[in-house]
Amino acid sequence: QITKQVPVRFDLKTLHIPTYSAEKLSSMKDTDWNDFLQLVSSLLDSTERSTGAVRSKLNLLCYLCTVAVHKEVASRLINSQLFPILIQQLRAAINWDIRAKVARVIGLLAFHTSELGENVPVSEAILLLTELIRENFRNSKLKQCLLPALGELLYLIASKEEKRGHPRECWVVPSAAYTVLMRCLREGVRLFHC
């Protein structure tokens, strides 16, 4: 059973970056885009653990969810230095709300991107999502957050390889990902569509 998630909202007043629209982001020149990415990356990569810092990071992730639905922005973000930082946040964040929101951003990027560079660490993201699902297998709420991102990444790789006509070594999918995915589907987990 697939359940639509509620729309994501962010608070403009507490967002510590300029709130550009997706259209503005897609038409930015490289220097402005790099400045924007640097700012977003440094805020996400912050190690501060106060309640305010966590709230600020969640707000930023909500903003990223709203712009990641734009094809050009999604393509630019997934192919940037932001994607490895998202993976790092998924691995290291102590707060599960942050991990869930990062997974949603990753899933939205994978779903909406039209371009995928060979150097994008998609396999690393798939492996990490697989491990997190396996480690928290009895927690259905966490699986509902993580599985859509895993599915979107698998579909993205499959569709890109189908277009190219042959598999790419840089996008190796561990067999454990399929095993975990099939186990979840057999047990009838309720999925949330990005």
TrEMBL record:
Keywords: Kinase, Transferase. GO terms for molecular function: kinase activity. Coiled coil: none annotated. InterPro entries: ARM-like, ARM-type_fold, ULK4. It comes from the Eukaryota. Transmembrane segments: none annotated. This is ULK4 kinase. It comes from Aegotheles bennettii.
